[in-house]
Amino acid sequence: MEKEFEGKSLDQLVEIACEELGCVPEDLEFEILEFSSSSGLLGIPGKKVRIKARIKADKVLSERANRALMFLKELLNYAEFKIDLKTNILKDKMQVEIILLGEDVKYLIQNGAETLTALEFLTNKV
Length: 126
Prior knowledge:
Blueprint: E1 2-7, H1 10-21, E2 28-39, E3 45-55, H2 57-78, E4 84-90, E5 95-101, H3 105-125
Antiparallel strand pairs: 1-3, 2-3, 4-5
């Protein structure tokens, strides 16, 4: 998600962008669209700064991975499956890979893996 912000100082805009996007400055990526100084009202100098800000892609991916992992853990625990989950974040493909391990994985892949396909569908909706 990208948003544009306008104000008088870059520091102020970074702070506002972090508040609105719900992140810390280290997770923010921004592009300066405009940076100008002009004489303002009554000859008092004024500044205008405009930026386009977004959360870094790898932070968004790790957040998605976390949500997906928690959803699957809760669902599989509720169904009383003995399955462990591991995640890999594939930054180059902008994907999250979830690996299922355990003795009950066989129940997810029987009948043409219909259950596994349904779990994948639901997880993508979270």
